[in-house]
Amino acid sequence: MASKTLAHGMGSFFKDCDHAQSRWPRCPHLYKIQFRNAAGKQTVESGFKTDVATITRLTDIYHAKKAAPSRTGRAVRVAKYGAMRFEEYAREWRESQRHLEGSSLRHLDSLSEHHIFPALGSRRMDAFDHKVVDGLIKTMERSGAGLAT
Prior knowledge:
By secondary structure, this protein is of the alpha+beta class. The protein has helices spanning 51-67, 69-81, 86-95, 102-120, 130-142, and strands at 3-5, 12-15, 31-36, 42-48. A 4-stranded antiparallel sheet has the order 1-2-3-4.
């Protein structure tokens, strides 16, 4: 069984028969497609009569995946948390950390109160980028905070 793979990770299409690829357009067997769905799971669909219908379906799946989760997910997060101050967000996050032991929570609380909140606590969540975090790390290094901190 041979398959043709499309560009940009769109997926592949094939026929479950013994005919050569060169004969597929005239072969009576239906095409199948294989791709990764939005959850990243390998998926197979069948029932396509022509290679054009097959490629069209793979293209539609590809465009739907590109438009969906990451871009809309970020927009939802920005709408929900963007105006929130970092300290408020961090306290909410800390409350959800049920898997941490008491000593780890005490250490986290100490780091937050002495290092992170004074530097970033009042910053809005939508005002973060890698430069802000890098700046905090450099400031902590200059002030002599240990590597573990």
